[in-house]
Amino acid sequence: NAGVTQTPKFQVLKTGQSMTLQCAQDMNHEYMSWYRQDPGMGLRLIHYSVGAGITDQGEVPNGYNVSRSTTEDFPLRLLSAAPSQTSVYFCASSYSGTGNTIYFGEGSWLTVV
Amino acid sequence: AQSVSQHNHHVILSEAASLELGCNYSYGGTVNLFWYVQYPGQHLQLLLKYFSGDPLVKGIKGFEAEFIKSKFSFNLRKPSVQWSDTAEYFCAVSGTYKYIFGTGTRLKVLA
Is B46 on the interface with A (CB under 8 A)? Predict the structure, then answer.
């Protein structure tokens, strides 16, 4: 059971470039989300999805785009990378409903120069 | 507004010392509360969670947390820490969908 799989693990981008962080889960979870982790700021929710075709914004959505065409996949797109988007990105998933544990991917370290 | 506050940003303890990390939340409606741990270079893993019943919750590796509804708190405790507990600890609250995390507490345990 692979759980939550993120790729790539490390990426360096130039300012203005675009890229997609991939996330896939094999647990048939309805809920998927993307967080960024920055020192002293904890994890901040970027976007989330409660099922295929349904997405919504989190706390820090600007500069990011998501789609959810299947239950398994939830890619995060950086439209025009900026140095402020240098961060560690975590994809997570869980069953919907109350009290469910959220499972995290291994993280993607992104540097924008 | 939904929020989670962790008051201790950095904690340094010697092995065998007792640990208590504070967590307060603001969230309308029924809440579910979690503590996650992130060991150096790794992703977040669940320590324990509360969603109903006994407000004293026991988790893995000897950790426990107490939900005090009147204080909107969910503090994490461990009677005797070990060097291997060095990690970052995150408190989180969720309703039906959104999970909101605190800013984290970095714990360093000195051998």
Answer: yes
The model's pLDDT over A49-100, given as tens digits with 9 standing for 90+, comes to 999 999 999 989 999 999 999 999 999 999 999 999 999 999 999 987 666 7
Distance of CA A23 to the CA centre of its chain: 7
Evaluate if residue B30 carries a pLDDT over 90.
Answer: no
Task: Tell me if the bond preceding A8 is cis, omega within 30° of 0.
Answer: yes
A43 → chain B, closest CA residue: B101
Closest CA to B61 of B40, B44, B77, B42: B77
Q: Chain B residue closest to A59 (CA)?
A: B100
The residues pairing with B45 across neighbouring beta strands, listed in sequence order, are: B37
Residue among A97, A99, A107 whose CB faces B43 most closely = A107
The residues, ordered by sequence, that sit 6+ positions from A103 with a Cβ below 8 Å of its Cβ are A3, A4, A25, A27, A29, A92, A93, A94
Element (H, E) at A85: none
Q: Helix, strand, or coil here: B84? A: helix
Contact yes or no for B106/A43 (Cβ under 8 A) = no
B95 neighbourhood in chain A, CB within 8 Å: 98
Say which residue the tokens 């967080």 belong to: A35
Cα separation, A29 vs A103, in Å, equals: 10
- Contact between chains at A48 and B97 (C-beta distance less than 8 A): yes
Residue pointed to by tokens 């996650």 = B36
